[in-house]
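tool_call: predict_structure(chain=1)
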Amino acid sequence: MVNPPLTTCDGKSIRILSPGIHNDDAGPDFSNARIQIGDEDWTGNVELHVKASDWYAHGHDKDPAYDNIILHVVALDDRRIQRADGTEIPQLVVVLPRDFYITYAQLSADFKGVRCSSSLTDIPRLNREDWLETLAIERLHTKAERILGWLDSLGGDWEQTMFVALARGLGFSLNGVPFELLAKSIPLKYIYHHSDDLLQIEALLFGQAGMLDTSSHIFDEYYQALCREYAFLARKYGLRPMRRDLWKYARTRPQNFPHRRIALLAAALYSGKGFTSSLIDARGDIDRLMELFSWELHPYWHEHFAFGSDGRTNPSPGTLSRASKELLMINVASPFYYAYARSCGNYDLADCGSDILYLLHPEKNTIINAWANAGIKADSAMRSQALIHLNNEYCQKGRCLDCRFGHYILRRQAKG
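tool_result:
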């Protein structure tokens, strides 16, 4: 069968002299291609989309990285496209089998869950394993970049940086941002001035969290003591509390309320030894990290889940559960090792960061359950992190063409 000649949408002949180099990273899909369009030879980049309008949907018209596109290859010619300077880009329409369009419509539909679940088992196992490994490292890299961003904004202070990281980790997904704001609202040196007094540390944290008001819980001696301590310390250090309404409680079990998490953060700071040096000394050893995260709550929180609440009928443990400690290893310790290695050049610590994820149990949540139902089960935290990243950064954002699973499925359909 002879392939029909290629022509642009405005009828000019196209001859591919060299397809260029396929790009797996951000930017145009192919670079340094050589193409003859009409009587002119062009050297530059080539971009592929299902719909021509995706050029604008993806913001390429405003991205200088796409100014050197010499050919736009599409399956659906739904509009003409232009570079940032207004010049029109030659466009080639490639006719694909009907099944390709059906599959693409299914993948790009507004659907919660695993869109490609019916086709996942058709992808070779080696392809799946390779992509999941890449996703896990991509997620670890993203978390490490966030830590390095904090480090830069905090003047290279690793202790203050890890105070922020630990606080955000204790907030988990629901209250991660408020906990981050709490840690950023108070210099760690103020807390270290009172490292031998748990009540004062708690007062600083609860006060900065906006949770203290002398007119409330007037018969609660512990609460009123915190109010008095914070009033003194706030004047001493010129502190201003954050807004109380930032804290979230919806669909949260009482033992995971932010009050108890703040009390745990106080207990962690009361331990005395710097958190950064403790992590470095542990070097990714699971047992030592378990011990590091075994903070003992103030006795008040054994019988309360919030100020004034009475939890004596259902007392809560005074320490974190093993599952919660493992989440801190996943979200705090592992990316710390990766970030610290990049910052200080100690690449043995980077291996500690990834090794932790292979040794820990996978997370249990609705995302992991959805992938398990689709045929991909998580056997370690490394795998569950990959699946969470795949869901959050690809599936939920409709980036099926950037996903190797989606790319494989569509490429197979394109071949008919």
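agent: The beta strands are 6-7, 13-18, 21-22, 30-37, 40-51, 69-76, 91-93. Proceeding to next step.
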